[in-house]
Amino acid sequence: MEKPSRFLANSSTALEQLRGLINQHESAPGTPLPTERELSETLGVGRREVRRA
User: Fold this and answer.
1) I need a labelling partner for 17 at 20 to 30 A (CA). Which of 2, 8, 9, 33 fits?
2) pTM surpassing 0.85?
């Protein structure tokens, strides 16, 4: 069986972390998400993984 690529693993991790941030309700409904760059730095993954997530 083929192992998932590092790219897919990182985007899955980013997706889980992003869901966690949303579920924590740290901002009011309707508040825009941070930029790709900010999310990339916050989540510790590349911008490509943030976009995929």
Assistant:
1) 2
2) no
**Model confidence at 10: pLDDT above 80:** no
- CA dist 50 and 15 (Å) reads 8
Residue type, 8: L
| C-alpha 46, offset from chain centre | 9
Closest CA to 51 of 24, 20, 14, 5: 14
Confidence band of 8 (pLDDT split at 50, 70, 90): low
**Cα separation, 2 vs 43, whole angstroms:** 26
Examine the pLDDT at 4 and tell me if it is beyond 60.
Answer: no
- Tell me the HSE value of 8 on the side-chain side, using a 13 A CA sphere: 4
52 and 16 in contact (C-beta within 8 Å)?
no
